Amino acid sequence: MSFNILAVGQSGRLEFEAILLAxxxxxxxxxxxxxxxxxxxxxxxxxxxxxxxxxxxxxxxxDLGAEILPFKARIFGADYPNGNKIEALLALPEGxxxxxxxxxxxxxxxxTIPFDFTRPSASMRRENTWPQVELYGPTLTQTWKSLYDxxxxxxxxxxxxxxxxxxxxxxxxxxxxxxxxxxxxxxxSRFLAWATEIRDAPPAELxxxxxxxxxxxxxxxxxxHSLGGGRPxxxxxxxxxxxxxxxxxxxxLYARESDHAVAVLEAVAHDKTIRQTLxxxxxxxxxxxxxxxxxxxxMFDRDRLPRREQVIRNTLKREGFWIR
Length: 324
Prior knowledge:
37% of the residues lie in helices and 11% in strands.
């Protein structure tokens, strides 16, 4: 089945990441028959100034086969940039879609993954980031159940019975780096409405919780559950596996990702058709073109990485290799 891929591009780092995403898709999945849509916020609305990409980037993305989709950020914008992915969905043509965070490298054929777009799902490559339990505050169960109750959802059926009570992995919680469904209009309108309500009128159980930057990941499991979806099965293992790498930053990619992901990054980055543009991205210039990524890679044992990403980040910052 053909499907569209949606990512967000705007001025600054995200436009370079969009180029890398588009080039890696062409490199790793030349048989992909859908559209790669790069949603671009427009001036006005909730974005001050002009958030659009440079004409050079826009032309290069078109050469790489991407289609630019303009959209107006009316709800989130600069107040919550992660909200781009929510509002951008409503600009996508109707049909099955896969959303990818722009800081994603395509490392294998997405077109061979057996998606069931009627059963939405999302990335399980996440940590215990939300909610944080206060000493005398609501339990995890009380916090999550308040959200399911707010939107009229069955809470019990969302739980993983194989996990202990009050353990964070018992609850449906995703990383919003990728998700998919058959209808961007249905998914996006519900995502937007529920994220807005959680922001503006959260249940009492959330009074001590940080809503930002986790809002998209708070609302996402509710939307997926309401549309008949859930945790991804083994048929989707290539996502966050052999087909995609959500690297977040280039230093993190070199620190912890596979040799194959590094090889794809370097092959794509040295393509002469995009190299002159990517050289304007300081992280790319340092990590790839000046070979600092190889020094980062030598600092970590991929078989014995720290369990928490923050430990890796702190090491990179301490050694002077943290750059986005």
